Amino acid sequence: MPLGLYTDVHVPSAVTEGLRLRSLDVLTSQEDGTREVDDQALLVRATALGRVLFSQDRDLLRIATQWQRAEQKFPGIIYSPQIDSSIGKLIEDLELLLTCCPTEEIADRVIYLPLQ
Prior knowledge:
By secondary structure, the chain is an alpha/beta fold. It has one domain (5-112): Rossmann fold. The chain has six helices and five strands; from the N terminus they run βαβααβαβααβ. The protein has a five-stranded parallel β-sheet with strand order 2-1-3-4-5, with helices on both faces. Strand 1 (5-7), helix 1 (13-21) and strand 2 form a beta-alpha-beta unit. Helix 1 crosses helix 5. It starts with a strand and ends with a strand.
């Protein structure tokens, strides 16, 4: 069963739409009413929902490191820089991760896109 994804406000809607066209479970921060919360609260929310967080916000990398050092559990973060990110490649890479990786392979980790 594919993993559920939670996207922050920085993720283009075209990525969300592309993933949904592939029948993947995506919830955006806008839909969840967390559009204006800080990054820490966003990771708390994704964790409460049991969803992997996809972001293009570098601040979440720092927060993930803090959580890892404190051994605080989270479902995982997928990160891609905003610059030079192809929408098509993001959709392909996210689909691969969500459909092929078991929960325990992504949990408590940061995965960087694009995949090589």
